[in-house]
Amino acid sequence: MRWPKSAALASLTLAMLPHPAILCSPQNRSFVHQKRYAMGTVFEIVIYDEDLPRSDAAARAALDEVVRLDGMMSNYKPESDLSRMNRGAHFQPVRIPRELYELIEESLFYSRQSDGQFDISVGPLVDLWKAALAGGPLPTAADQASALRCVGYKKIELMPPDRIQFHSDCMRLDLGAIGKGYAVDRAAEILNARGIHRAYIDAGGSTIYALGAAPGGHAWRVRLRDPSRKLGPEVMLIDTSVSTSEQSAPSSLQGDAPGHIILPGTGKPLQTRYAISVTAPSATASDALSTTLLLLGPTKGAALVETLHNVSAIWIDPDGQRTLAGDGVRFFLTGEGHPIHVSPLKNRNAATSRAAKELLP
Amino acid sequence: MKRMSLFCMLFFGSIVAATPVAAKVFLRVEPSPLPPADKTGIQDVVLLWPVRDLSVATKLHSQGYRVFLQCESKDLAAAVVTADRAAVTGMIVTNVAAASQSPAAEQLRSYFAAHKSLTFRMLVPGGKQPQMKGRLVVERDGVLQVSTPSSQPWLDTNLALVRLAQLMDQESVPILYDFHWDMSEALPDAWHPDAGAYALSIAEADAIRSDVTIDLPGSLQRALVADDPRAWTLWKAIMPYLDFSSHAPTERVLPVVNLGVIVDDAQASYEAINLMARHNLAFESVRPSGLTPARIASWNSVVVFCRLHKEAVALLRKFAASGGMVVFVNTHDPFPWHSAPPLRRESRATVYAVGAGQVVELAEQVVDPENFARDLRRLIGKERSALALWNSLTALVTGYHEQSRPDITLYLVNYADQPDNVQVQVKGRFTRVRLEAPEEPCCVTLPFVQRGSFTEFMIPALRITARVHLDSARESSGAP
Q1: What is the DSSP annotation of B378-443?
Q2: pLDDT the model gives residue B138
Q3: Are A73 and A81 within 8 A, CB to CB?
Q4: Taking CA atoms, what residue in A is nearest to B154?
């Protein structure tokens, strides 16, 4: 996969919209729905607005922006800024676009917060296991050790305002665990700037941003991934994002199927039965945190969430065991017929970056 | 419901057959004026039966079109009488399932035999507009609801539909498929579908090597007749794809396959096979009765969706023993290889070593077709795959070759709405790789590498469709 889906699998199944009569006929509709393929997934935007031509143009512009960002952040396209940096930053500092620099800076915040579990330098390991997922042989211990040598966020040197250098001869960055979230945020900014205030942006189901409220003043109701099929978790979103992450499903034909989410510490696929959903004020944050918290697991992950502001997380396993944390948007467990309140905040960290300014008190 | 009809139609295996043909585009139009054929670039038009004013057919014929009537099988008797009197080239017969009760196979066959001046096509129901779908669908009750078939881009394709229809014997009436345009994203005053949707439909039929019927919305038909410049701008954007499709090789070709799919209940297995097609597994489907040593000679892997008779099991045992991979789905039958302990047991599958190969027995139906298809691709592995695409989640590839000739033509279709670089791996060592596309007259020679027993190359910026000709040493010396 071009963009390894660290934050994978669909989370949303339902968004309630309270104007049934106007949805069916193209001649009598009040929404625009557009989609575009980028970053190895399908980005979709639904806009509710009376001015359909304006909505249409806004959705097109937002999706154009997503495609532009794909061109900048893709590690598949050789001409992308990220690829250019990956080729050259071993030898000397490489100047990159400011927004790419800031996204890498933000990524390193999550690396520090998770003690290296979130790591955008995991690319060589991801590629190794991706080949196995695509039908190649499982990587040998030597292959893994060789790739592991290239990984480590501490070997990335930020040189403000816009230069990067690697202190490894084989390092390669991969923004697959945060890039889609960033693209969703940029799409939301463009819609906002064009006067759109009710929109729903979806990056392949793994990251969703609800701009404003749904028609009728209601929040956007989103049903989350539930591997147990018992809990029916939902959130109500207004100007909030939710991301879901889950390891690849086990193979029905083979027992040794690798997953796509790799533990940077061991170089092996993460073994977990959990699916996690994370809400945060920005899609960049929810995207990065969903991978981070899946890698950390519920115990360490909940401890991290308790240090953050406006973030909520829920881990669910196939047996229906759940762990909730955070002070952000409440989760509703419709399968149990009553809302669940997440735990109160405590033990906040100090702010250290743009992400910290949003998430840390 | 429509798919039910298809599978009822499969019951008529002896009368309706799928023969790989030239992938012609039939344009289904309203019985009203149409610009002449030399302006539209279309040769075959379809009118729905009953046609009140037969002068429409005569007029269309005089404008250079071959006119087909589309009717249900129950109306065929009346329709062919009319067709014989009017300037009609042939008949497209639908709803064959309904015929299963009454006039039945022999009666239909008698029509085909009695009207040799007419060309017949059987319509495969259940076709879908080819498109890359998102996850959002709008339901009638006002709930914006999401279907989540896959975390990857979901492609609606007709490849599996056609391949399953091709289960039938190879002798009588060719099939074609159709679909209805998805208008859910149309803005009130926009031309819809747009040129890209037409182009993709034409390209897909070309890649599947099947005829297709495409609807021309009445508003567009009237606008073309009225010389509306917007309508002609749209149509002129479609014409290069019609032209490209019409230049595809027309000789009888065989699909490039490495995987056999044995199926007797196409409906029960449809979704799994659909996902196998979508994941570019190079397969062909056969019924258990069609399983012969000659048929399996080009395979290295087999998926079995049905119970097999003893001879077929013996054949597959021999196939596995010589290095083949066999996957049984939802099987609880005793097999000869059970006399030895399994190689391993997984939660849902048991794996047996059989000679140089393996047999995998899945003890349940395919629950998640998406994962099944991906698992299958991984199980088969790169070394056994005849065709593989990398980093191309929105592209479909099919390959064809002439009998006893090593040269291959690949057909690629990109369902996304922007160009994509497509990396291709093909089994075989070829000495020349040539690309042609609607925007790239034949042919551009592509750089390639030979890696082991494979040839690898990249198609830069595949827009909607392309054909790639892989020439062997013998052919490359004389080809243009």
Answers
A1: HHHHHHH-SEEEES-TTEEEEEEE-TT---EEEEEEE-SSS-EEEEEEEES--SEEEEEETTEEEE
A2: 54
A3: yes
A4: A42
Query: What pLDDT, on a 0 to 100 scale, did the predictor assign at position B144?
Result: 56
Question: What is the model's pLDDT at position B1?
Answer: 39
Point out the residue among A42, A134, A135 whose CB comes nearest to the CB of B132.
A42
- The Cα–Cα gap between B463 and A60 comes to 19
A351: tokens are 């702010």
Read off the pLDDT of residues A118-145 as tens digits, 9 standing for 90 and up: 999 998 998 888 877 776 778 899 999 9
**What are the pLDDT digits (tens) for B304-360?**
999 999 999 999 999 999 999 999 999 989 999 999 999 988 878 999 999 999 999
Longest Cα separation, chain B: 75
First CA to last CA across chain B, in angstroms?
48
What is the distance between the alpha carbons of residues A321 and A12, in angstroms, rounded to a whole number? 20
Q: What is the pTM of this model?
A: 0.87
Distance CA B420, CA B412 (A): 11
Q: Distances from the Cα of A157 to the Cαs of A85, A116, A177, A313, in angstroms?
A: 12, 15, 20, 31
Q: To the nearest 5 percent, what fractions of chain A are helix, strand and coil?
A: 35, 20, 45
> Which of B138, B146, B326, B380 to probe the A interface (max A CBs under 10 A)?
B146
Q: Do B135 and A135 touch (CB under 8 A)?
A: no
Q: Which two tokens stand for residue B295?
A: 């048929």
Positive or negative: CA dihedral B256, B261, B267, B271: negative
The H or E element that residue A123 is part of is: helix A123-133
Q: Which residues does chain B have within 8 Å of residue A2's beta carbon, measured at their own beta carbons?
A: 391, 393
**Cβ contact A49:A198 at 8 Å:** yes
Measured distance CA(B453)–CA(B473) in Å, rounded: 15
Shortest alpha-carbon distance between residue B276 and chain A (Å): 14
Judge: B132–A37 Cβ closer than 8 Å, yes or no: yes
Is A44–B134 a contact, with Cβ atoms under 8 angstroms apart?
yes
* CB spacing of A12 vs B141 below 8 angstroms: no
Residues of chain A with C-beta less than 8 angstroms from the C-beta of B464: none
Beta bridge partners, A45, equal A34, A201
Terminal C-alpha separation, chain A: 37
Q: What is the pLDDT of residues B146-178, one digit of tens each?
A: 555 456 788 999 999 998 887 754 445 688 999
Segment B259-274 mean pLDDT: 91
User: Residue A203's pLDDT is what?
Assistant: 93
Amino acid at A65: E
**Angle, vertex CA B375, rays to CA B325 and CA B255, nearest 5:** 60
| Cβ separation B382–A134 shorter than 8 A | yes
Q: Of the candidates B146, B349, B394, which has its C-beta nearest A12's C-beta?
A: B146
The Cα–Cα gap between B414 and B203 comes to 9
B154·A40 Cβ contact <8 A: no
Whether B141 has its CB under 8 Å from any CB of chain A: the answer is yes
State chain B's mean pLDDT as an integer.
86
CB atoms B151 and A12 under 8 Å: no
Max Cα distance, chain A (Å): 62
Find the length of chain A.
361
Q: How many CB atoms lie within 10 A of CB A197?
A: 14
**What distance in Å separates the CA atoms of residue A259 and residue A153, rounded to the nearest whole number?**
22
Taking CA atoms, what residue in B is nearest to A206?
Answer: B151
